[in-house]
Design brief:
Elements lengths: L1 E4 L6 E4 L1 H10 L12 H10 L7 H6 L1 H31 L8
Antiparallel strand pairs: 1-2
């Protein structure tokens, strides 16, 4: 899959990470279907090698752990919000102000 974004006067092509991996491993410059990758792009990919890619599979493996962490943080946020409400109520009841009275 290839998409074209336009950050300025020049267009920049972006390529799917699997295509880049194939080109780096196989050294292929054209891949049929009329998709030609510029030599400079191939050279850059080969020089830099593969870069790490975060995929949905990695996220799915840790899904349960993430859900537990979210639940824990949600409980903690509720407790902290309750503490803030109590402190504000105490502040109002004590009639404290910054005038020093």
């Amino acid at each position: 899959m290839m998409s074209v974004s336009s950050p300025g006067p020049h267009t920049r092509r972006t390529y799917d990470h699997r295509l880049r991996e194939h080109v780096v491993r196989a050294g292929a410059r054209t891949l049929g279907h009329g998709l030609a990758i510029p030599r400079s792009t191939v050279s850059t990919w080969q020089r830099r090698g593969l870069s790490p890619v975060v995929t949905v599979e990695i996220i799915e493996q840790n899904r349960q752990q993430l859900l537990e962490s979210i639940a824990r943080l949600d409980r903690r946020a509720r407790v902290l919000a309750a503490v803030v409400r109590l402190l504000l109520a105490l502040l109002r009841v004590s009639e404290f102000n910054l005038d020093g009275r």
